[in-house]
Each structure stands twice: as C-alpha cells, then as structure tokens.
C-alpha cells in the first residue's frame, strides 16, 4: 500500500472522529438549553406574567381554587380564568345575604300579623250612651239603671256606675259579689244593667235624705245626667250599686 493511500485513510478517519465529537458536543448543548427553559417559565409565573403556557396553567389552577372559596378567587384574579372565578366567589357571597333578606320578610310579615289592639272597642261616653232609672217593686228599695248604646260603635261601660245622688260628696260602694268575669261591652242598640240599693229596708240606715237628681260620670270625663222617677228617691247609708251586667236579673238579684 502506498504512503499516499495511507494518509488519505488516516485523514478520513480523523474527520469522522471529529464529526462524532462535534455531534456529541451539540447534543450536550441542546440538553443545557432545555434545562434553562423551565427556569425561565417559572420566573415569569412568579411575577404573575401569563405569557407562557406554564403561567396560564398556574393562573387557571388559582382560578379553580377561587371558585371553591370566593375570596381566594378575588386575590388571584390577574388572568381571565381567575377573574371568572372571582365572579363566582361574588355569587357565593350573595347567597349568604339571601337568608338575611328572608328574615326581613318574615319580620315584615310578623308586623302585619300583630296589632290587634286597634280593633278593641273604646270606652263608652255620655255622648253615646243613654242611662235611665226605674223603680222596681222587688226587691224593695231598689232602682234599676239601664245604659243603652245609642252610638254607631261598640263600646265598653265602666266597671260600675259611680252614681252621685243629689249633693253627695262621695259615690256609693259597689257590691263585690256582683262582679262579672269581664267588663260589659255594648254593641250599637244593646243595653247593660246595674242595680242600686237606695236604703235599708229595715230602717237601719242613717243620714237619709230625699233627692231628685242623679249624675253618672264616664272614664273620658263626660257626665250623664239621669232623670229619676217622679217625686225623687230616698237614700241613706245603705246606698250600694252593682257592677254593670248584661242581664237584668243579675243586676237586681242581690
């Protein structure tokens, strides 16, 4: 084999070896570049820049978390996905307000349901009640008072007639045994009754006198003037009245 041929083969082998070495070097450089890419992407994500695929994915995960907890979504709302999650968080907060509104409605309903006091009858007055006085044969020395509602509304009589005969400085006591379970109310046209013991039947009464005037005050300050039977009545210290009753016999049965 000639020396020229030998050199030619040696050169070719050297060239192949150098090419292989260069290829190896290039592959190593490519690996190094690939390793640097994640580092760059991570830095962009930390700064909140959604320019890379990695950053957008991270933002989406934050947005998804924000959907679960509304406040978290608002904190990480720099990307489109995160902003949507923030809106979902607001919707969740609105849901919490709903029970409060319902409670307010219930309260309103309660306010409408109460207030029965306005429907209660008022007290009777001398202007809408007419009182008459009538002597009865039984029991002896008794007077029957009849109060008739001449007004247009139901009203409540006072517990008993605070009858003042003539110039008396005080009103007679009331017979507690005649107290009804409730006050006597009068619808228009209805009447209530009270009995009056004028004097002691056995003559045991004291300080007796004749009178032909009778006045009965009402709780609103008005006063009814009651016409007594002709010739007037005789009263003494036995003078007593009953509570107002809805039944005439109850007023005279004591």
Indicate the overall shape: elongated
How are strands sequenced across the largest beta sheet? 2-3-7-12
Distance between the termini: 165 Å
Strand content: 15-25%
Supply Rg.
54 Å
Helical proportion?
Answer: 40-55%
Number of helical runs? 5
> Could you describe the largest sheet, including whether it forms a barrel?
4 strands, antiparallel
Overall domain count? 2
Q: What is the residue-averaged pLDDT?
A: 71
Please count the beta strands (DSSP E, at least 2 residues each): 12
* Topology pattern, helix = H, strand = E: HHHHEEEEEEEEEEEEH
- The computed structural class is alpha+beta
Unreliable runs: 28-115
Written account of the structure:
The N and C termini lie far apart (165 Å). This protein is α+β, with helices and mostly antiparallel strands and 254 residues long. The relative contact order is 0.10. The protein has 2 domains: 3-113; 122-252. Helix 1 (3-46) runs parallel beside helix 2 (53-68) and helix 2 (53-68) runs parallel beside helix 4 (80-113). It has a 4-stranded antiparallel β-sheet with strand order 2-3-7-12. Strands 1-4-6 form a 3-stranded mixed β-sheet, with no helix packed on it. It has a 3-stranded antiparallel β-sheet with strand order 5-9-10, with no helix packed on it. The protein contains 5 helices and 12 strands. It is elongated and about 170 Å long.
What are the SSEs and their pairings?
Elements: H1 3-46, H2 53-68, H3 70-75, H4 80-113, E1 122-123, E2 129-135, E3 142-149, E4 155-156, E5 164-165, E6 185-186, E7 191-197, E8 209-211, E9 213-217, E10 223-227, E11 233-235, E12 240-241, H5 248-252
Helix pairs in contact: 1-2, 2-4
């Amino acid at each position: 084999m000639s020396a020229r041929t030998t050199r030619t083969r040696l050169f070719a082998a050297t060239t192949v070896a150098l090419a292989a070495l260069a290829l190896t070097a290039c592959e190593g450089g490519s690996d190094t570049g690939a390793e640097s890419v994640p580092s760059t992407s991570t830095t962009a994500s930390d700064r909140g820049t959604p320019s890379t695929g990695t950053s957008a994915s991270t933002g989406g995960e934050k947005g998804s978390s924000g959907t679960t907890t509304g406040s978290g979504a608002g904190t990480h709302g720099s990307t489109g996905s995160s902003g949507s999650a923030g809106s979902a968080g607001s919707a969740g907060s609105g849901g919490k307000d709903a029970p409060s509104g319902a409670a307010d409605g219930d309260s309103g309903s309660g306010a409408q349901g109460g207030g029965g006091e306005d429907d209660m009858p008022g007290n009777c007055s001398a202007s809408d009640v007419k009182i008459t006085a009538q002597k009865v044969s039984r029991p002896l020395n008794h007077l029957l008072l009849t109060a008739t509602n001449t007004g247009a509304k139901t009203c409540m009589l006072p517990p008993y007639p605070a009858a003042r005969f003539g110039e008396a400085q005080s009103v007679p006591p009331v017979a507690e045994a005649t107290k009804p379970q409730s006050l006597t109310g009068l619808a228009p046209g209805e009447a209530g009754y009270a009995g009056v013991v004028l004097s002691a039947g056995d003559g045991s009464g004291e300080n007796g006198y004749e009178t032909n005037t009778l006045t009965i005050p009402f709780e609103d300050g008005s006063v009814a003037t009651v016409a007594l039977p002709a010739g007037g009545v005789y009263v003494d210290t036995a003078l007593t009245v009953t509570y107002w009753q809805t039944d005439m016999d109850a007023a005279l049965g004591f």
